[in-house]
UniProtKB/TrEMBL annotation:
Coiled coil: none annotated. GO terms for molecular function: hydrolase activity. It comes from Streptomyces guryensis. InterPro entries: HAD-like_sf, HAD_sf, TPP-like. This is HAD family hydrolase. Keywords: Hydrolase.
Length: 272
């Protein structure tokens, strides 16, 4: 039976230059591989060692990139190793099969959101009305499923984020602050639901996962074994559970450690 590995990408397996956390002397810094170019500029990286580990993992398991990115944002990533047959985009809103969104899955998700959550337009209007242009740089809607703001973190009032979270909670939405982005996402829009669907289709009897943010929590809890890095929302909150391993590594070296753990558990073939 195959092993399914569902991993978040940004700040879990791949890192922007600002998130690398290269704290060692320059001469001892790991060699990096660029895995994403945007507008002709290198944007995301992993270590060369991590790239080799991911290639090995792609041969040994069903590797499923699992991201809050839109399909367009995901498709500009060029990961090493075999091309994944499945990918989860838009926080579970799109299940990609051989690079194409599964329309039946997307229809199921949108019907569920319409039934259980306040509409996207209401949330977007609230963001526009309450967010201060002094610290907001961009307002965005992703795949007609959720909204996010790009902000100046040093100017962002912590109290505003807390108030937004309470407001959203009462309408069936979740708020997550990741780097310079504040996400407002419907609660039923989950990575875990899409992971369960891929597990059903592939017949996987062991599921492994990793992630760093609040939007990854459901995925980590749903998998048989999970890992989180020493940075991010979950680490800041000291969030954990019996099947989750909190790693000490931060930045790009955490991505390398996570891949080592995935390979070790995959080769063992069962939870340790």
């Amino acid at each position: 039976m195959p092993v399914l590995v569902a991993s978040d990408l940004d700040r879990t397996l791949i890192y922007s230059s600002a998130a690398l956390a290269l704290t060692m002397p320059d001469a001892r810094a790991p060699r990096l591989l660029c895995v994403e170019v945007h507008e002709s500029r290198p944007l995301s990286f992993m270590t060369e060692t991590a790239a080799g580990l991911l290639t090995d993992l792609g041969d040994a398991a069903v590797f499923v990139p699992t991201t809050t990115r839109t399909r367009k944002q995901y498709q500009r990533i060029n990961l090493p190793g075999p091309a994944p047959k499945y990918a989860i985009c838009a926080n579970g809103g799109h299940l990609m099969v051989d690079g194409v969104s599964d329309l039946d899955w997307h229809a199921q998700v949108t019907a569920l959101l319409a039934e259980q959550c306040a509409p996207l337009d209401e949330v977007r209007e609230h963001l526009l009305a309450t967010a201060d242009p002094e610290w907001v740089r961009k307002h965005r809607v992703a795949e007609d499923l959720f909204a996010y703001l790009v902000v100046e973190r040093e100017l962002l009032p912590e109290e505003w984020v807390k108030e937004l979270a309470v407001w959203a909670e009462n309408r069936g939405w979740t708020v997550s602050l990741q780097g310079r982005k504040i996400y407002a996402v419907p609660k039923p829009l989950t990575k875990s639901a899409a992971m369960h669907e891929v597990a059903r289709r592939t017949g996987a009897d062991l599921t492994l996962a990793a992630g760093d943010s609040l939007l990854d929590a459901d995925l980590l809890l749903a998998a048989d074994r999970s890992w989180r890095p020493g940075h991010g929302e979950l680490a800041d909150a000291e969030w954990t559970a019996p099947t989750i391993t909190a790693l000490p590594e931060r930045g790009v070296l955490a991505g390398e450690r996570i891949l080592r753990e995935f390979l070790k558990a995959t080769r063992a073939g069962a939870p340790l």
